[in-house]
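Data availability excerpt. The first of two example chains:
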Amino acid sequence: MRNLKFSILALFALIFFSCEDNSTETYQPNLSQNTPSSSIQESSETNAKKKGNKKFLLVHGAWHPEGSWNKMVVGLEKFGNEVYTVQLPGLGTDRTPINEVTLATHVNAVTAKMQEIGSGITLVGHSYGGVVISQAAENLSSYVDQVVYVSAFMLLDGQSLFDIAATDVNSVVTQNIVITGDSVFIPENAYENAFYNYGQNSNNKNITEDIYFIKTLLVPQPLATFTTPVSLSSAYNSLDKVYISCTDDRAITPQAQQNMYSNYPDVDVYTIQNADHSPFISRPNQLLNILKGL
């Protein structure tokens, strides 16, 4: 099965590519213009408390660091929520060797954090993070209030990320995917078009600076995390689910997103207009409005 999936994935590879992470810098976004505006922030403590008091655990996507969520952490905490992130091993600034990282490695990192936080968690996953939170929610469902997908892979039992990605032929990621050994990546010249197309073209200096810094922390993704299927049962199926779709996503196309969330008829769907694959950078106010209102 692994060889079959590797062969199919290789059809989309343009080159064989290796990438070294030459930066240990922690991502710190410029918040001066991209944190929620005063019109979005509810000024009274009463309203903040009413909207807050949730526990959010935010799980980042493939190739990216946990610092991707920094704007959301700041914004959600302003409304009185507890907000947590987790660095998936082998990504960001974590130096776990890539050949030692599996989907289970990432799921275990999330469930360990869930056990630290306690019950009542709103579990949020971006992109590949959707695969991780689905399995984590299955494994520790009693800790979860809601499972929230932000332009994310929302799989059915027995599916892998690659099962969906390989059929999303209009995806910039699928068109540029690269395999080398146990890792998978896309060339650096495809980053902006795949992940930050709206933000990069926004002419907003703060957003373009955020994109520049976060790109320095992108590293290869363990291939096994893409080819391993999830195992989901009624424990997962019975949970409340939310899908946040971005209309200008070029990494997971809107049609692919719709195909996935349509498999779950009770999912609540929200849409962010003119949003690329990284709304936490390019559309933070809109994403925050949805998350704080859950």
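And the second chain:
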Amino acid sequence: MFAAQLTPTATLRPLEPHQAGEFAAHMDRAREHIRPWVGPSFVTDDVAGARATLQKYADATARDGNRIFGIWLDGTPGTDGTGGTPGPTLVGGVMFVEFSAAAGTCEIGCWLEPSAEGRGLITAACRMLLAYAFDERGLHRAEWRCRADNARSSAVAERLGMTIEGVLREAWKVGDTFYDKQVWSVLATERREPHALS
């Protein structure tokens, strides 16, 4: 199975339906932290929901469409500052929310639980997705969409060399509230710092 080293202690590899239990446990740790920033269907509540999410991506991948990858971190500390797990733990991931070789475009998304923030994992993983999209598959354009008030997400888009193209007014609904959505992009000809996905 493909795996890429993000850091000496973190790896990126595909998330597959057989990992539904692990994904559900990860969602239990991450759910409330990521809920405001991701689509509601992604924040699953049980193993069946986790399996359905991963199966949806597996089916899309089989059609050369959307894909999802997990980030595993060695020696993850406990959320209360004690304990934790000594082995690799799923702490987040990245995905091609949209992927169309025919159109030459993709959209990248991400999520991360609090214990793994501040390590550069998302930026490193997204650079690998951009390398795959542009260098390996020959896509022309990659997009990034996030809530306009999600400063951490906007900062990743900037680090990836993306340009903000505009704001979709009140296009992101959470509960009964509508938020503005930013649209960022980078073209293959503009990309900086290529990293191989191997």
